[in-house]
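Memo to structure team: turn this sequence into C-alpha cells by end of day. - J.P.
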Amino acid sequence: QVQLVESGGGLVQAGGSLRLSCTASRSIIFSFGAMGWYRQAPGNQRGLVARITNTGSTDYADSVKGRFTISRDNAKKTVYLQMNSLKPEDTAVYYCNHQSGYWGQGTQVTVSA
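Reply from structure team:
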C-alpha cells in the first residue's frame, strides 16, 4: 500500500502564491512513475493540472501554463506544485496522483477575489 499525503493548501487572495507538497510513503513506487496534480471544483469533474515524469518531463493544463510549476525531489519522495498569480477560478480541492493509481486525500485551495 502506498500513501500520498498532500499539504500546503489554504486561503489566499487573487494574485498570491501557494506551494503544494505531496509525499509518498514508498520510495520505490515514487521514483518509478509519473506524478500528477489534479483539481476538482464543486460541480466539476476532476481534471489534470500538471504532470511530471520520473525523468522530469512536464505537462500542464492550458489554464495554468506560465503560472504553475511542478517539480519533484525523488530523494524526498515529494512532488511540488508552485502556484503563482492565483485566480479565483483556481479554487478547488487539489489531489496528488501516482500513475499506478494512488491518490492523496486532497487539499483545499481557496482564492478570494
